[in-house]
């Protein structure tokens, strides 16, 4: 279920972002198969106050294949 309002400041200015470290996006790997496929991590954040509402695996079915 996706949030509609920031729980911290009650703004409706929520946006999706990509988490990066240096020049690469942060990837999720399976704990049991770290050499398998991965998926990018994204976030839902408030563009008014900067609060991060959640982190999401973009393609969870790909992780660990």
Summarize the structure in words.
- The structure is a single chain.
- This protein has strands at residues 14-18, 20-21, 24-25, 27-28, 39-46, 52-57.
- The protein has 65 residues and is mainly beta.
- The strands form two sheets. Strands 1, 4, 5 and 6 form a four-stranded antiparallel β-sheet that branches.
Instruction: Give the helix tally.
Output: 0
Radius of gyration: 14 Å
The main β sheet shows up as: 4 strands, antiparallel
Tell me the number of structural domains: 1
Shape label: elongated
Order of helices and strands: EEEEEE
Strand content: 35-45%
Question: What features would you highlight for this structure?
Answer:
65 residues, mainly beta, two-stranded antiparallel ribbon, elongated
Describe the secondary structure blueprint for this structure.
Layout lengths: L13 E5 L1 E2 L2 E2 L1 E2 L10 E8 L5 E6 L8
Antiparallel strand pairs: 1-5, 2-3, 4-5, 5-6
Give a summary of the structure in a few sentences:
It is built from no helices and 6 strands.
């Amino acid at each position: 279920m996706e949030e509609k309002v920031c729980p911290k400041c009650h703004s409706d200015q929520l946006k999706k972002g990509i988490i990066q470290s240096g020049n690469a996006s942060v990837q999720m790997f399976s704990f049991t198969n770290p050499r398998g496929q991965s998926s990018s991590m994204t976030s839902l954040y408030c563009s008014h106050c900067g609060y991060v509402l959640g982190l999401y695996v973009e393609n969870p079915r790909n992780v660990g294949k």
